[in-house]
Amino acid sequence: MSMDISITLSDSDLALFVDGMKSARKKVDNLDAVSIVGAARKLLEDTRCKELPDFVATRLKHLETMIAMVEDAGFGLPAADRDNVLAALTYFASPDGLVPDSVPVLGLLDDAIMIELCALELKHEIEAYNDFRKWRENEASRRSLNTAELMLTRVDWAEARRAETIERMHRHREESYVSGTWAPVLFKVR
């Protein structure tokens, strides 16, 4: 039997998480990007063999995506966006969260909530990255290569999307001509 539980975070609850993030940033202020990502990756490794509630396991997948987004040279996150993702990851580099991870059942709950808050904050970046990865994987499959062999970048992805959009526009125009639902009035079509 599964059960839905809804958690509403009040302004004071959110302030607690914001303060937790600020405190974590102060504690790891001297860490570089590699150390921050390494600490977030360690959290993932420490939880791999543990039986976790689905709520936590699902959020840890978001954490994996944030790490991959920072490390993916092909995606090439602009510096300001990369800094935002790294700022989100600093919470997981701090030695202690709101609830220590060693506390049974609840230990990773604050991490899961923080991941959820970060994922909401980085929603557009995560969606774009997932779209890019899916496109890159499809391109690799289409070319019978693995993604590591295929050096595609965000620029290639943007160009492919532009070409797809233009092709779709032309296809729709042609379909309109064939079905007779549209005929040019203001100009002559060649």
What does this molecule look like?
This protein has 190 residues and is mostly helical. It folds into two domains: 11-138, no CATH class; 153-190. It has seven helices and no strands. It has helices at residues 11-27, 33-47, 54-71, 79-89, 109-121, 123-142, 154-179. α2 (33-47) packs antiparallel against α3 (54-71), α3 (54-71) runs antiparallel to α4 (79-89) and α3 packs across α5. The chain is elongated.
- Low-confidence segments, given as residue ranges, are none
- How many helices? The count is 7
Helix content: 55-70%
Straight-line N-to-C gap: 64 Å
Strand count: 0
Biggest β-sheet description: none
Structural class: mainly alpha
- Described by the principal axes of the CA atoms, the overall outline is elongated
CA gyration radius, whole angstroms: 22 Å
Count of domains = 2
Elements, N to C (H/E):
HHHHHHH
Mean pLDDT: 83
Beta percentage is: under 5%
Attribute tags:
about 190 residues; 2 domains; about 65% helix; elongated; mainly alpha
Précis, in short:
Helix content is 63%, strand content 0%. It has seven helices and no strands.
How do the helices and strands line up, and which of them pair or pack?
Layout: H1 11-27, H2 33-47, H3 54-71, H4 79-89, H5 109-121, H6 123-142, H7 154-179
